[in-house]
Amino acid sequence: MRSTEKAIVLKVGRFREADAWVRILTPTHGIFNAFAFGGLRSRRRFTGCLDTLNHVLFSIAANKTGTYYSLEEGSLIHGFQEVKKNPAVQGLAVNCVQFVRMLDPSPGQDSRIVYDLLLETLEMLEEKLPSGDMVPFLFRAKAAFDLGYRPAFDICASCGREAEGMRAPLVSVESGQVFCAACQSRRKAVDGVVRRVSPGVLRSLEWIRNSRPADWARLGMTADVARQSRRLIEAFVAYHLGLQWENGYYKKV
Ligand SMILES: [Zn+2]
Predict the structure, then answer these.
(1) Does the structure show a pLDDT above 70 at 192?
(2) Ligand 1 centre from 137 Cα, in Å?
């Protein structure tokens, strides 16, 4: 393989005096490591490129036996300097990057979806920061939705009643379906892991499902809806993507 590809730098490590290894996310080949031989000395070939969160156009080549990739040169598209200037904002971005690294989307459609989502999230954080600390949750929810988990938050799955105005709707984490109070008692048990939420949570999740990161700065939630939404998103992501945030790290569940 020899190609020129846009990539987001997820991690940079040093080995030997002047060489670096770089973990990158590309839209077509997903996540992989590539070596930047001499990258820490020859600044000319990688001017400002070898740093986490950077958006870079890399020339990538495989060695003869195809056992590893090396970066021949790079040109920086965006360094997201505003994000890096503010430790709190950088923390939100790094959280999304850690999630992406653990998610390790398969090359092709999934890697394209995650790449677009991460890039748009960094662009949004660079421009205008949404209030609160919801960004990593919005990112995880949107990743789950875009990767094929398609819940229906707007109607009762049993009677078709609109979720708007429902009292104490119940959500099945497994199926992503909503059940109104009347159907809950008729149905007795809704299968699997369920969460009782306020209607505002359903409205918010439906809005997130149809949003892009550029919209997120406009999202307003009460503290209670935000808290319930975070818990529901965590349950969705643990169930459908097998990842859970715990003590500052993502772990596979
Ligand atoms: Zn119903």
Answers:
(1) no
(2) 28
